[in-house]
Amino acid sequence: MPKLGFLKLVLALWLLVWLATFSIVMPVANAESRGVVFYGSRWGMVQEEMDSAREVINYIKSLFEYRGYNCNDLYGSQTLKQNVLDYASLMEELFDYVAVFYHGHAGRMNLDGVLHWDFFDDEGSQTSNNLIWDYDIWPKTRRNKHFFVMLWACRQGDTEGYPGGIDYKGRAVGMPFSWLHPISRGDCFIGFEKASMPLTQKSVHNTTVPYRNFVKMFYNYTIYVGFPVIDALNEASWNLFRIRNFYNTELWIGFNAIWKGLQGVLNGGFERGDLYWNVGGLGDHTVTNADRHSGSYSMLLGFRDKPPAVGLDYAYQRISIPTNNFSDVKLSFWFRLTTYDSINYDQFVVYVAPENYDPVRVFRYGGVARGVYRQYQWLGFTIDINQYVKRIKHSMCTSQSTTPSTPTTGHGAT
Ligand SMILES: [Ca+2]
Question: I need a surface site. Which of 13, 54, 275, 351 has the fewest CB within 10 A?
Fold first, then answer.
């Protein structure tokens, strides 16, 4: 399980008026129209974390409703990139004040020499169709109606050295700048530097309190009670942790985020078919229960059910490695090879492909003699892949990285 060191909640931050930003009060007068959208991506989340996000949104929705906000709950399957962009624009057309809450995974990436930030929609991080970039948001918020944005996700507040603006390619830089268009007096953006805190994680200040309770209480004080943002943070800290000053809590000082469900290959036991895997080739590439190492299924690659032929079958997926965990990254897998041929013709191969780099073969195993049938036992291997992971350019809490691909004949189970 990744332990990510020294992370903190960053309140951004109109840099010149830090205190003024902290003193903002969410408007409660009824003269203006107000709306809020709740988003949540379930990608890479364990059930308990999804349940916590659902609980938080249900709760804070009731607070916003009490304050007369038009509430739009798009958690889960409706948190799609196009919806997020459409709503950002639509809400600004309809309301004077727009708030946003998002829960999910996110990151940032160096694009043409400039850092840009992205968070994931409900379908994950596999393609650009699922990544919502800072510069995607910017044109949608041109009416400058968004004023209170919380992205409970990694990295989104980590904009130190990047106060916002438009880069040399004409793209807006940073989530605070893009959502708040730009950050102006009365605006509030809350995000994290480095990894975000799981809502299920218990506080070190009170080990009976998961952070979903903190989020709920913060919104209770800021939206329902109407306290300024910093007072609401202080009140939540006092009530839950008996710490009067939010700046003395781990959210501000630093914490270890322990995210479950992200430290490994997704669906590595193939218990949900080939979900998360890209498979292909001329032969068999299916999930089978005919032979397996553990669990109920394995991935069959090669030519078992089809006539023998020349070719490769493969399965690969893009996975994510925690940014601060680069010193101990290992790829483990089990496979079982059935072969009639030598290693030159029948082989099981594993590649690692750091993004923007050519695949590197890290493992190869094959038959021994032409014409001799051989079925191996299940064999397990662990490969240190730190040197490849360090090349990763996309840095995020779940930073992406490697693409193990396994062309072979025989069975592969990962
Ligand atoms: Ca603004």
Answer: 275
